[in-house]
Design goal:
The chain has helices at 22-36, 77-108, 144-151, 156-172, 181-190, 234-247, 269-274, 293-302, 317-324, 337-340, 355-366, 369-386, 389-406; strands at residues 6-11, 40-46, 59-64, 113-117, 136-139, 175-178, 198-200, 221-225, 252-256, 285-289, 305-308, 328-332, 348-350. The protein is globular, with a radius of gyration of 22 Å. The longest helix has 32 residues, at 77-108. The two termini are 17 Å apart. It folds into two domains: 6-204 and 388-406, Glycogen Phosphorylase B (Rossmann fold, 3-Layer(aba) Sandwich); 221-386, Rossmann fold (3-Layer(aba) Sandwich). 42% of the residues lie in helices and 15% in strands. It is an alpha/beta fold and 407 residues long. α1 links the parallel β1 (6-11) and β2. It contains 13 helices and 13 strands.
Length: 407
């Protein structure tokens, strides 16, 4: 079991950029952690700022220099059609290059295992039939066609069309893994994977994650950290805020997350959210926009209550960050947060889109500092016992070796 592995890791992102996606964060952590254990990782990803990353010990980088098309903030119809055609051409070329790069690596190196994200059929053109002696793991973060059940950026017809190549790629896999039981259940149903085994292994924790001393908090401060999207439950939160303010007029909401363009006819999602709030509630909500971890950690330290109102979230790194700070968390029960918070023993759970239930939980915690203290301590203890790098990486490597032995 001490054998060192050679791993081919495929990811849509590898964040040198701090605004990188959750998949990119996972890939970076996984590559670095495996390298530290002495395994060798060949990492294939789309080039961006990360093209400047130098070779690291036990990590070989293979960046594909095909950029994503820029999305205009308020495009007209003809601009959208042009953008769609340009995007399809670029994405087709990108996937061809991924397959070409994978074949070259596999033909010139001894590779023990391949792991790829589910990211919109990125390895669709990979000729897996030529390498059936090597396990192919598809890591199910959230297939785009499943995410669109909640975010609704495209029509139902388009969503179903997206599902076809995604499912085709997933069925290529010899093995499937997922970071939460909630994801396991949802993806098995929505991608029709009843006959496929799906292994649950948590994502490794971020490197900046460490136990934080509980500081004196602002008893009326509520914080949200995450992307400004429908999937993250932002409309649910906007409806809950006025209810909280009726009972606790001193409550303050700090919302930290990146903006995006053109939802619901607005040029910005922040404008879209602000339009949902009554005029008298807006002064109690502070939209900070995107902040890096070092910038938002001070807001997190001061907050009394933290919220995760997602319609679905497979395994949010934000939840681990909140747990490390010992925060009293109010979370949606639709996703991996349920098991992360020990079925509600280490936090409060609500069912979206029930904004009244979200508001009631926030009010309860704002009025009860002893309960906040208790839940925060339980969250910290659970993070330290269940979500350590050592535990998760040991389980991951054992799973890799199991996959190898099964072929």
């Amino acid at each position: 079991m001490s054998k060192k592995l050679n791993i081919l890791l495929i990811s849509p992102d590898y964040p040198n950029d701090p605004k990188g996606t959750g998949i990119g964060t996972y890939s970076q952590l996984m590559a670095n952690n495996l390298a530290e254990l002495g395994h060798h990782v060949h990492l294939v990803s789309r080039a961006g700022q990360n093209r400047l990353i130098k070779e690291q010990k036990n990590i070989s980088f293979h960046f594909i220099d095909i950029a994503r098309p820029d999305v205009p903030v308020n495009p007209n119809f003809f601009r959208l059609v042009f953008l769609a055609l340009k995007s399809i051409r670029a994405e087709f070329k990108y996937r061809k290059e991924i397959a070409k790069t994978m074949h070259k690596i596999l033909d010139n190196n001894k590779i023990d295992i391949i792991e790829s994200a589910d990211a919109f059929a990125e390895i669709l053109f990979f000729k897996q039939k030529n390498y059936t002696h090597i396990p192919l793991i598809i890591r199910l973060h959230t297939p785009l066609s499943v995410g669109e059940l909640f975010d609704k950026n495209v029509s139902e017809i388009v969503r179903r069309l997206i599902r076809i190549p995604e499912r085709k790629q997933i069925l290529k896999a010899s093995h499937l893994s997922v970071p939460s039981r909630a994801g396991q259940i949802l993806f098995r149903k929505e991608m029709a994977l009843e006959h496929k085994a799906i292994r649950v292994i948590a994502n490794p924790p971020p490197k900046n994650l460490s136990l934080k001393k509980r500081l004196k908090t602002n008893d009326f401060e509520v914080i949200y950290i995450g992307r400004i999207t429908r999937t993250k439950g932002m409309p649910v939160l906007m409806k809950a805020i006025p209810i909280v303010l009726k009972q606790i007029p001193n409550a303050k909401f700090t919302l930290i997350g990146g903006d995006a363009g053109n939802p619901e006819g607005f040029k910005e999602k922040l404008a879209w959210l602000k339009a949902m709030l009554p005029e008298n509630a807006r002064k109690s909500v502070d939209f900070k926009g995107y902040l890096a971890f070092d910038e938002f950690s001070s807001y997190l330290e001061n907050a009394a209550v933290a919220i995760i109102p997602s319609l679905f979230d497979n395994f949010p790194y934000t939840c681990l960050e909140l747990m490390s700070f010992g925060k009293a968390i109010v979370s949606s029960d639709q996703g991996g947060m349920v098991e992360m918070l020990d079925n509600g023993k280490a936090g409060r759970l609500f069912t979206p889109p029930n904004h009244s239930e979200l508001a009631e939980n926030i009010i309860e915690l704002l009025k009860n500092p002893e309960l906040r203290q208790k839940l925060g301590e339980l969250a910290q203890k659970r993070m330290l016992s269940e979500y350590t790098k050592e535990k998760i990486m040991q389980e991951t490597v054992e799973y890799y070796k199991q996959c190898i032995n099964e072929l």
